[in-house]
Amino acid sequence: MKYRGRLIASSIILPIHTAYMVYYYFRDGHVDIADLAAYPLLAFLSYWAGLQYDKAVYYSDMDTLTDLYNRRFMIKAFDKIKAFANRMDGNLFLLVIDCDNFKYINDHYGHAKGDQVLSAIGKTLIKSTRDSDLVARWGGDEFVIVGHYKDGGKGLEAMLHRLEGQLAELSGRMKLPISVSIGSAVFPTDGADLDQLLRIADENMYVTKRARKASQA
Fold first, then answer.
1. Rounded Cα gap, residues 79 and 67, in angstroms
2. Of the residues 54, 63, 133, 141, which is catalytic?
3. What average pLDDT does the segment 99-117 reach?
4. 141 given a catalytic annotation
5. S-S: 133 plus which of 5, 56, 147, 182, CB 3.0-4.6 Å?
6. For the whole model, what pTM was predicted?
7. What is the 3-state secondary structure (H, E, C) of the chain?
8. Residue range 63-216 in CATH 1.10.10.10
């Protein structure tokens, strides 16, 4: 959570009160003890007011179930991530991750268990990615990851292997048939904006999903 609201509130309220005391000191030759005693209260109030703003901004960007970023934040942040990739002459990858049998889990084990699965998948995605990667719950049982790479995709392949292994462990720990289908797209090869990359990654994800179903038939 950022401190912007708290910094702004404190930088407005406390200087105003200081200016008020300085004015009355030069006018009357003294400072009222009540004005000095008000500093701690004003410091607390400015911190509290700023904290409410910071919380509102934070939770507007977060998915409360999984503690991942939400779709709104991904859309807002993508252009900055892309601009950074352009400056660094690097590539971006985008992954679309879909829980294959989420409806089955919801129907057979209940929505509370389904929520636990989504939360656990979110934690697994965070463990499997780098700090620089942006992980978001796109909606429902679908997640999106965006990140940079410069190594010809070797880092991306390693991350996918980690993800598959940790999801298999998650399925065993929760004793539930948890599996995902993953589709990928690369900027700028597959598209120049978020919508194009999502469309390509989504198509690739459904190819993977159909192939898995065919192999299990």
1. 22
2. 141
3. 92
4. yes
5. 147
6. 0.78
7. CCCHHHHHHHHHHHHHHHHHHHHHHHHHCCCCHHHHHHHHHHHHHHHHHHHHHHHHHHHHCEECCCCEEEHHHHHHHHHHHHHHHHHCCCEEEEEEEEECCHHHHHHHHCHHHHHHHHHHHHHHHHHHCCCCCEEEEEECCEEEEEEEECCCCHHHHHHHHHHHHHHHHHHHHHCCCCCEEEEEEEECCCCCCHHHHHHHHHHHHHHHHHHHHHHHC
8. no
Domain ranges of the chain: 4-60, 63-216
pLDDT tens digits along 90-106: 789 999 999 988 999 99
Q: How much of the chain, in percent, has pLDDT values that exceed 70?
A: 96
Residue 64 backbone dihedrals phi, psi, to 5 degrees: -70, -25
Q: Token pair of 105, please? A: 């889990």
